[in-house]
Amino acid sequence: MAYPKRLDGRKINETREIEAKAGIIKRADGSAMFKIGKTVAYAAVYGPRNLHPKFLQNPREGIIRVSYAMMPFSSKGERVRPGPSRRSKEISMVTEKALLPVLNLEEFPNAVVDVFIQLPQTDAGTRCAGICAASIALADAGIPMKDLVAAVSVGRVDEQVLVDLCYDEEAFDGKVADVPMAVVQRTGEISLLQMDGEIEKDQLINALKLGKETLKKIFDVQKKALKEKYHAENGDEE
Fold it and tell me: What is the pTM of this model?
């Protein structure tokens, strides 16, 4: 089954509409909302604070602990069961690894930084939206960071190489591959790269190039969210 044109009319290098805000949860040390299309991720950061039980502590540096969860009726597909699942644990782990390269936790030995990611509404790209929200929230919390991490999914539907697949594209009746990726903008380091499906080598190379160009735009959205919060707190008109 051929896929000559995207179902929602977007260009192959065009994301769904993106929106981001920082500092939206008052009692958190840092927080953010990141929305891409109909997928909405909220991230809240608490800490650094003492890690208990003590045998988990690292005397050389602090650790980051991520908890990712989709709300039961958030998914466009099947209903999500409440509570931890194999998928949520896996995404929590890869989110930690995606964020670690930009964090300076040496100043916080024996401490933990907790990041809670909740998705009340989803339409594919959830782990990428969660990473984008968490990166903003960590910066909002004042955690020492070398840079922000931006994430987006790329892949193929039939023979088309695309950026930011939606749920209907992931469920397309044909050859489909979904490739979530995260990049540290300053260095270009890829801190997350996964794949669900099959993709040819040339298609993957093109998809990664497309993703890196797209992530520059997402990075600008993340920075704008932080700047807007800063200006609002300081009473600036910008």
Answer: 0.92
